[in-house]
Amino acid sequence: MRRFQARSESAIKSTTMENSQAGEGSLTADFKIGGWLVQPRLNRLSRGEQVLQIEPKMMDVLVYLAHNAGEVVSKNDITDAVWPDLFITESVISRAIAGLRRALEDDARNPRFIETILKRGYRLIAEVLPAPEVTDTRPPRAQPTQPDLRRDAAPVPFVVGQWVRGKRFYGRAGQIAEILEGNRNWLWVLGTRRIGKTSLLKQLESLAAASPELGFVPLFWDLQGADTPEDLHADFGEALLDAEQRLEDAGIRVAEIRADDLFESLGRLRRQLSANNLRLLLLCDEVEELIQLNRKDPAVLRKLRRAMQSQEAVRSVLASSSRLWQLAEAGGDTSPFLDGFTPPLYLGSLDDDEARALIRQEALPADVRPEFTDEQIERIRTSCGNHPYLIQLLCRRTLDEGDLDRAIEGVAADRAVSFFCAVDFDLLGEEERAVLRLLAAHPGASASSIASRLSERADTLPASLESLQRLGLMREHPADAFRVANEFLRRWLLTEAGPPDR
Fold it and tell me: For the residues 244-252, what does the mean pLDDT come to?
């Protein structure tokens, strides 16, 4: 039995959809499409003696398409029906569709099952037939289950846990200028969890598309789950399809450049862009996946590095956590993958004015902005350490609760916050972890005090302090008085990370 996996942000937590979760509109009985027997309860596709086991969420997407066979459904429709309580990026949908196409042996360019409708979504074009025990394969379309948090029809002022761009994007002017206007063609954006790496890439995509004078054609490529060469090739093909309209506006037809091999596709794309005096802005998210790929097939990674660092019409931007440092290690007879991408461009906390603008929601019309006092703004900002995700979460909770004190306690108890604190902490080096534990217990310690307490690490301590500040995990205020950057990380360190070394 072969196994196809839908690689999504919720794959770790994904389990088979139970009837109680599926709702009255879910199809759990067997049905047929194009010669395949679909068995949702078993997450199984079969055709004659061929049997494929697919991941639960991939099956849920197929079931939803079958609910609405012949109709165009948007990515938002699919998200509302299949992932109603989770944040996922659009690329998760694209990869689920790509996985279904591979399982069904479909071809996106000449589809027999799932058709991509440009700028609108997807349509199941294969006929849906009932299996012998099925009498109705077309229940009503599933409805979104997310609550409407708007008050008096005003726009929701804060976005929690999702990437943002345009008027909802605040700050990062320095990083944006360096990427779009600087001289480096190979850049690595390094940041902690939920610091806004995807949002930065999406904002770059939007700005480059809206500013033809820059000479870039942006392509957003989410590498999450691409841990085999086959996945890497397939995901790049999906990225091309997602950018089809933008490429066509630049005079490039995806059908003419798209190939089964990503390197061939990328080469064709670069050459056509160069002929039009344009450059590719290759925006790569979740690049940590290349670590696993390097273990499986280092030759592919070497080839990918050469393609990304081509001098011909491409500027490559990688976004990841510090885990990617593993690809800076020498291996084999070639330079490490990160050669040329370092030093990284750190994505830390917002500066004070950027944080205040985010809290005030200055991009919104004045009559719909949240009404925080100056004292509340400063308390929110300092409690969150100017961390954009924490700011949006705390502001949203404050508006919902109507009380800042209760909101702070609610965020401190939030399991999702504890989870990303733990992830960020685990990615640090031993010395950096020791510094944070010490500062949680002794806020305001000076560099000399930290050095005396961690005397065996004194030689490398300055580099650790600098790294922690750049990552937005530690702040210096006033001069030579160091503190854990935000209140929620400090509380987590005191309860979960263990005592300081001394």
Answer: 90
